[in-house]
């Protein structure tokens, strides 16, 4: 048996307020986890930095993710992947890590790109918002999603949106070529 009251007293009210956001963001039943990044490492970073603590406390407070919260989470992600870095942008850190390893790095060792990180943070925010309203009698939960243009998506099957943009700049995508020994049809072409 774990004495949750004692654990809460040891962690403190600030960390306890951040736990729903941190737990959702670092991986739970409904939100995927980032490759090779554990919860203990994330918790230690949050405990050591008030900016990160505030960001995860704010995650799930509303149904959208404010820019300042996402910027803090992006800086947190950079620290998660490269402990002593001064880089605070996911795309910049990805590029720096890729160049430092001269391209000899597995994609799971790189942080997600900014676009994917935003989608991940939006999923975690939604889950944390549900948890933060779990004791309300009739919580005000959005009944349906909207697409980027604000059009209702009622009746559309739910799918995880991994990215909102292209997986790489057009310049890089143009460099990718098929290695088939025969002529490819569009359905045979490699997926990005």
Distance between the termini: 48 Å
> What fraction strand?
under 5%
Major sheet attributes = none
Number of helices: 8
Give the overall shape: globular
- Secondary-structure element order, N to C: HHHHHHHH
Backbone structural class? mainly alpha
Mean pLDDT: 85
Number of strands: 0
- In terms of per-residue confidence, which ranges show pLDDT below 50 for 5 or more consecutive residues? 188-192
Radius of gyration, Cα only, in angstroms? Answer: 19 Å
Could you estimate the helical fraction of the residues in percent?
A: 40-55%
Task: Note down, in words, how this protein is organized.
The chain has 192 residues and is mainly α. The chain has a domain at 10-134. Helices cover 48% and strands 0% of the residues. It has helices at residues 4-11, 13-26, 39-48, 50-58, 67-81, 90-100, 114-132, 170-175. α2 (13-26) packs antiparallel against α3, α3 (39-48) crosses α4 (50-58) and α4 (50-58) packs across α5. The longest helix has 19 residues, at 114-132. The radius of gyration is 19 Å and the shape is globular. It starts with a helix and ends in a 17-residue tail after the last helix. 23% of the residues are buried. Mean pLDDT is 85; it is low at 188-192.
Compact overview of the structure:
With 192 residues, this protein is an all-alpha fold. The chain has eight helices and no strands.
Short descriptors:
single chain, 192 residues, mainly alpha
Strand and helix layout:
Blueprint: H1 4-11, H2 13-26, H3 39-48, H4 50-58, H5 67-81, H6 90-100, H7 114-132, H8 170-175
Helix pairs in contact: 2-3, 2-4, 2-7, 3-4, 4-5
């Amino acid at each position: 048996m774990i004495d949750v009251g004692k654990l809460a007293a040891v962690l403190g009210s600030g960390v306890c307020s951040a736990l729903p956001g941190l737990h959702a963001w670092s991986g739970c039943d409904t939100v995927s986890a980032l490759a090779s990044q554990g919860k203990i490492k994330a918790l230690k970073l949050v405990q050591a930095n008030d900016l990160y603590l505030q960001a995860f406390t704010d995650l799930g407070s509303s149904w959208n993710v404010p820019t300042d919260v996402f910027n803090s989470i992006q800086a947190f992600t950079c620290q998660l992947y490269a402990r002593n870095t001064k880089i605070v942008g996911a795309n910049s850190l990805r590029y720096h890590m890729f160049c430092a390893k001269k391209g000899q790095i597995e994609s799971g060792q790189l942080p997600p790109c900014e676009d994917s990180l935003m989608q991940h943070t939006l999923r975690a925010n939604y889950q944390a918002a549900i948890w933060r309203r779990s004791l309300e009698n009739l919580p005000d939960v959005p009944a349906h999603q909207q697409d980027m243009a604000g059009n209702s998506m009622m009746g559309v099957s739910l799918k995880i949106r991994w990215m909102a943009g292209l997986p790489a700049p057009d310049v890089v995508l143009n460099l990718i070529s098929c290695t088939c020994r025969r002529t490819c049809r569009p359905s045979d072409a490699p997926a990005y």
